[in-house]
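Question (not urgent): is this output format expected?
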Amino acid sequence: MVVGEMPESVDLVVIGAGPGGYTAALEAATSGRQVHLIDKAGAQGVGGVSLLEGCVPSKALIEVAAAIHDEGKRRQMGVTPDGPTTVNLSVFQEWKDSIVTALGDGVRRKLAAASVTIIEGTAKFTGPTTLRVERENQASTILEFRNAIIATGSQAIKLPLLEGHARMLDAAGVMQMSMIPTNTVVVGAGATGIELGTALAKIGSKVTILEAAPSILPTFPPAVASDVLRGLHRLGISVMLGARLDGVTETAVRVTDSGGDMSLIDADIIVAALGRRPYSDGLAAERAGVTLGDSGYIVVDEFLMATDQIAAIGDVTAGPGLAHRAGAEAIAAVRTLGGQRTRQNALIPHVVFSDPEAATVGLGLAEAIALGYPAEEITVPFAEVAKSRILQDTSGRHRITVDASTGILLGASITGNHATELIAEMGLAIEAGLLYDDVTGTVHSHPTLSEIVTATHFRPINR
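Got this back:
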């Protein structure tokens, strides 16, 4: 702090206005705290990468891609369009932007109603309870806070080989495309790479996905990853596992496959989907006594506390980079800072908007056995559910992990139509400690996809 600068005393400072940050601000403000929410983009940054560039825009593209791809299903139902279904990307951009704006405006109204003060600028800690807010071409401000929550999120990992290359796009760049590429190479077979590759294939691009690891979706159970891989192949997507990107030419990329052979793959665009790293750069967190761990993640305790006064939540800490995880941690952190020490123990569902969709919650069979449970897995294919036949999509299955000695639900995974929606019921059941018979005995409306749960009723566990 420069001698002569007078800090402004504030109650709670939240750094970052993404899903974790704005949820923390609203939770704290509605419990009576005075909140200052700092974001480098100010009010326009509300929603963060998830709303502005990632989760919401990409799902809009996925929805459009599905509408085009489902033309074949509609023909089977007797619906014959006048001509082939195509997408006008300019109209798509307007529609997608209208969704983002509407959602952002909604959050901004909530923040205003809760009297949250939004500050545009970049926060840098200057001490254990002080920070400086720096603004371009403006004087900086010093804030002295009672508590702070760091919710700065994450940023895309960049591949040096593609740095500055005109044909290289990240997820945000794909959302701004003005034309459909003839050939696309996606580097990375995690959730983002698979979702973008699926969408691009459905709107007419020839897609190749490169993955250095021996399998896709490394954080998902192998059986789920296999279901998704089969879906990629059905879409005509080439997936090269154990592959390495070695170079870029004017029209292609050089790739070395798992056997050591090199080949050229045509690429109008190259989509970098290598994962994300914490956005802790520039915080000067060490001045506040905050410890940075591997890869720049902020180290927190079981209550999400980085110091006695500062909490950290979401992608800037180690764990899955999920907007709903950040939101859940935001509520727990605010309660802890308010004197009600709270762990975030809720189960976090993991989902991929692939085709078929994939979702997991709780323990998979291998995890449960490794933890010592006498676990059993019950599996039902979606082909047994009437609504799947009506929707012309019987791919995928529902797997439930059960403690065979007690019948208590331990986990579930779903691949198939609307798996990302259906998984919520299983998460609630596991959180509530329900038995297998409780869930399979619950009456579900007919014909609905949710009947996949009751379909397991005829597969009793071996007790």
